[in-house]
Amino acid sequence: MPQLTGLHIYPVKSTYRLSPESAQVEPWGLLGDRRWMLVDESGRAVTQRDEPTLGQFRALPSPDGSLAVTGPDGSRLEVAAPSVAHGAPEVKAEVFGTLFATALAAPEVNDWFAGWFPGVRLVHLDDPLSRPVNPEHAGPGDTVTMADGFPLLLTTTGSLDELNARIAEDHPDDERKGAALPMERFRPNLVVDGTPAWAEDHWRRVRIGELTFRVAKPCGRCLVTTTDQETGVRQGPEPLRALGRHHRIGQKLVFGQNLIPERPAGFTGLIGTLHLGDELTVLE
């Protein structure tokens, strides 16, 4: 049976991953996933598309919502979770053209980040109901944190193996052809093993463990996939060139599928917990 072999949480959008053995699932994604984000002076998201070294920052959330951040130089910052209801300034943040309300972190926090990226500010999504999912691919009441567009991203090792094989074939004389791209390049939340290559393109609804998910749409890939997540350095045109040659859906270079957790209408609590080793069943 296909099973869950990877779980990844990104507490601050575009920073380094956490990879727990289990993760609680909320209607808007994994608990603690991308509730924080850096924005520029206009409120637009600052990500690895703009600053590839963002992946060198490590963030660890606490149960009270606060955050401990470690910079590339080893310096450490404790960040209290701001809330508009408790007096924090409100900032209209933007991800891919959608605007939503966030709470601004304290001035000393923003000064710390501005030491690396001038002009940036750290914001917190204190109300996870404030950003709806694109209604073309979602139901009433579906919301998302500060991920690109959907609560969870699923990838499969079968598809990565196939993609790496195609990359090796496309570069027969490349001395690096034996260095397969790692799954971390694609920054998934869920990784599934035991399925044929590209099987996920045909899924519409799946169960993982005891939880069910709607498959909303394929994930179009961008420049971030060319960035080494361990060093923060761009590595050339792959995997985008190979996806363009071998796995294009419409105009999109696709790898992975976006998921939305199923839950009763209006339910805003914890839906359940995913564990490494949970079996995946295709329902539709």
Number of DSSP-assigned strands:
19
The percentage helix is 10-25%
Count of runs of 4 or more consecutive helical residues: 3
Main β sheet profile: 8 strands, mixed
The secondary structure category is mainly beta
User: Low-confidence stretches at least 5 residues in length (pLDDT < 50)?
Assistant: none
Q: Report strand %.
A: 25-35%
Q: Care to describe what's here?
A:
With 284 residues, this protein is mostly beta strands. It contains three helices and 19 strands. Strands 1, 12, 13, 14, 15, 16, 17 and 19 form an eight-stranded mixed β-sheet that branches. Strands 5-4-11-10-9 form a five-stranded antiparallel β-sheet. A hairpin with a 2-residue loop joins strand 16 (248-249) and strand 17. The radius of gyration is 19 Å and the shape is globular. It starts with a strand and ends with a strand. The model has no long low-confidence stretch (mean pLDDT 95).
Short structural summary:
With 284 residues, the chain is mostly beta strands.
Question: Tags for this entry?
Answer:
globular; 31% strand; five-stranded antiparallel sheet; eight-stranded mixed sheet; 10% helix; 284 residues; mainly beta; 19 strands
Per-chain topology:
Elements: E1 3-7, E2 22-26, E3 29-30, E4 36-39, E5 45-46, E6 58-61, E7 67-70, E8 76-79, E9 90-95, E10 98-104, H1 107-114, E11 121-124, E12 152-156, H2 157-170, E13 190-193, E14 205-208, E15 211-220, H3 240-246, E16 248-249, E17 252-261, E18 272-275, E19 280-282
Parallel strand pairs: 12-13
Antiparallel strand pairs: 1-13, 2-3, 2-18, 4-5, 4-11, 6-7, 7-8, 9-10, 10-11, 12-17, 14-15, 14-19, 15-17, 16-17
